[in-house]
Automatic annotation (TrEMBL):
Species this protein is from: Bradyrhizobium brasilense
InterPro entries: Hexapep, Hexapep_transf_CS, Hexapeptide_acetyltransf, Mac_dom, Trimer_LpxA-like_sf
Record CDD domains: LbH_MAT_GAT (cd03357)
Maltose/galactoside acetyltransferase domain segment(s): 6-59
Sequence similarity: Belongs to the transferase hexapeptide repeat family.
UniProt name for this protein: Sugar O-acetyltransferase
TM helices/strands, residue ranges: none
Pfam families: Hexapep, Mac
Amino acid sequence: MNRTEKQKMLAGELYRPDAELAAEHTAAEQWMARYNASGASSAAELHALLGERFRKVGRDAVIRPPFFCDYGSNISLGDGVFLNFNCVILDVVEVAIGDRTQIGPAVQVYTADHPRDAETRRAGLEFGRPIRIGSDVWIGGGAIILPGITIGDGALVGAGSVVTRNVAPGAIVAGNPARARPA
């Protein structure tokens, strides 16, 4: 069976960005221009705009503009999720954020990844690994979440941390790379 590049991308396999993905990315850029220009809109209007693009938008979920993403269509937000100004989500595969999770300003969430060998990168191939952030998580401003990471329910990620490994439920991590800290 011949699979499209989009199907490969969504499955986390090596893919090559093609015209279909470029068109979807352009549509996301147009949506971001509208969303980011709507700073004076009501919470209900911003929520409705999120619903146009995202896979799921829970009740009372809020993202303060400006906000940036690759596609938007691979992002799911639980109830009461809050993302502060200037967040970036590279969503070539699923990004799921659980209920009541709070994400500080300028946090970056990267599912996009690249092959480790130069020859494959030269061929223009890339892939993604999903990110799952549990419920009741707090991620401090400027943190970076790398591809394939799972952050368990109730965890706390310190500001400016670079999360390179999964974070257990209830854990507190901070630093570069993020390491467990006492409560």
